[in-house]
Specification:
299 residues; TIM Barrel; eight-stranded parallel beta barrel; 8 strands
Length: 299
């Protein structure tokens, strides 16, 4: 186990919005409590599932503070503080640290296409600005193909509080390279819900599971079964979740997730513009997937 106790199922929380497009703070609290009750190991506000790109800095800080207060130390809070610019990321880092977050998740810069050396200095500067563990978030398909290469991550891992990585590249060979090249105790999280089991076989410490918003108990079961050496059960849960994962590509992310939450009686509101609600053509198919997962579909 790594010294920061980073492991398990971390759920990147959706951001609930009201009908007038404001942050639904009661919804944030309700979702956080639901995750704690389900036994997840961490919650991650203001990530991709949380639509960080349509939140201003004040909203991001307020959401993080609300989640910290509601989690009340029962689970770790991984605050999403990524930004294109290093200065803005450090500003958000300080806000999250002051707000009581336990760890920081930092998406690679996007829109621009930084070199590996520029990425190194970006993350090193963020790590120097805080005492909290810093976890780079690699997601090339959503950041203009910016890829934090394993050799660069191995350099960064020499910095004491650069403690892990969330790898959403979808390249399990690269996930394996992070595990192999970085020192013992470095926490590699699989960021693709459909690849958590095979990544843990290779040595990942867990997964950041967007599906956990809808089916947190199933995601925890996958992890717990694996840790109990019941790999057949863990793999079976992974196969079921993978079918849901494919549905997340329907509509503009995270429309399918938000619609699924409404279907199980946990409404999160629509995504913020320019994203729109899930097209009606997908509703029956999504509803059937949730039924097949034995979830209580009420809408």
């Amino acid at each position: 186990m790594n010294k920061y106790n980073l492991h398990g199922i971390v759920v990147p929380l959706l951001t609930p919005f009201t009908s007038n497009d404001a942050i639904d703070e009661d919804g944030v609290r309700r979702l956080t409590r639901r995750m704690v009750a389900a036994g997840v190991h961490g919650v991650f506000p203001c990530g991709s599932s949380g639509e960080f790109w349509v939140l201003d800095d004040e909203e991001r800080c307020r959401i993080i503070q609300t989640v910290v207060a509601e989690a009340a130390g029962d689970v770790l809070v991984y605050a999403g503080v990524g930004a294109v610019g290093t200065r803005q990321a450090i500003k958000l880092t300080r806000c999250a640290e002051e707000g009581g977050a336990d760890a920081l998740v930092v998406i690679t810069p996007f829109y621009i296409n930084p070199t590996q050396e520029e990425l190194y200095h970006h993350y090193a500067a963020i790590a120097r600005s805080t005492s909290l563990p810093v976890i780079p978030y690699n997601n090339p398909s959503r950041t203009g193909n910016v890829n934090l290469e394993p050799a660069t991550m191995a350099r960064l891992a020499e910095i004491e509080n650069l403690a892990g990585i969330k790898d959403s590249s979808g390249n399990i060979g690269q996930t394996a390279d992070y595990i192999t090249l970085c020192p013992p105790g470095f926490a590699v999280f699989q960021g693709r819900d459909d690849m958590i089991f095979p990544s843990m076989v290779l040595g990942a410490v867990g997964g950041v599971a967007a599906e956990g918003n809808v089916a947190p108990e199933m995601c925890v079961e996958l992890y717990d079964a694996f840790m109990a050496n019941d790999w057949e059960r863990s793999k079976a849960v992974q196969v079921k979740l993978a079918k849901f994962r494919r549905a997340l590509a329907w509509g503009t992310y995270p429309a399918a997730l938000k619609t699924a939450m409404t279907m199980i009686g946990e409404p999160m509101g629509a995504p913020r513009s320019p994203a729109a609600a899930l097209p009606a053509a997908y509703l029956d198919r999504l509803r059937q997937i949730l039924i097949n997962l034995d979830l209580n579909v009420v809408a």
